[in-house]
Amino acid sequence: MIKMKKIKQIFQDHWEGFVKIYKPRIRKNVLREVNLNYS
Question: What is the pLDDT of residues 26-36, one digit of tens each?
């Protein structure tokens, strides 16, 4: 549980960086899935 919390924190902290790198490849359905899983 703590490990997942830490992973979630890291993911949120670096989300903008991920978006900048992967935005050309990301589709709306993927973003929606990610939002459901990490929100």
Answer: 666 677 777 77
